[in-house]
Write a structure and sequence with these properties.
This protein is an alpha/beta fold and 190 residues long. The chain has helices at residues 3-6, 24-33, 74-89, 91-106, 121-134, 137-142, and strands spanning 14-19, 37-44, 50-55, 66-71, 113-117, 143-148, 160-167, 179-186. The protein starts with a helix and ends with a strand.
Length: 190
Amino acid sequence: MDAQTKMAAGVLSHVEAIYRPGDRQLATDLFEALGCKTYDTETPSLAGSSYISVHPDHSDRSLDNVLYLSEMTEAHCGLDDILKARLESDEELRAARDQYRNMADEKPFGLAHIAIRYPTYDMLEQVLAEAEQKLTPEMRTRASLRIFRPGDSKDIGWDSIQAFVYTDIAVSGISVFGQVFELSAYGEWS
């Protein structure tokens, strides 16, 4: 029986995130620092470069439970560039973006995000320890890591560890606003 026949219901297949031209290696390195395995798919994206598949489970290279990275298209870069210019000239817009960034750094759990769950605290703690070592100075200028452990915040469950990365290196949206990625483990289900 093939995988399609075995599926009893829909599954969350993938998320596609984009990176700016020139950030391909940086995007790949970021996800590898966060404990994922990456592969060049050799499938061309709309921008002409190939997609990168990002797998949280190193043993699973299927088409589900995957994040794809692709280079921004020229049209997306144009929109991003206009938004960057407007952010520089529009004080109200810049203040709203800065407020959002502060929230993404301080209380990211209420914002739209993409999450990877680990089966145990120990597995997540190992990933986080390695991330602390692998996040290069260049990555740290464009990505922040905030870890909440049980008791750290009344807004986070008492039985979870949740780590949030806020970055503009790879986003599933508009890069000038950034993206939140979550790495988590829950004691109750571990």
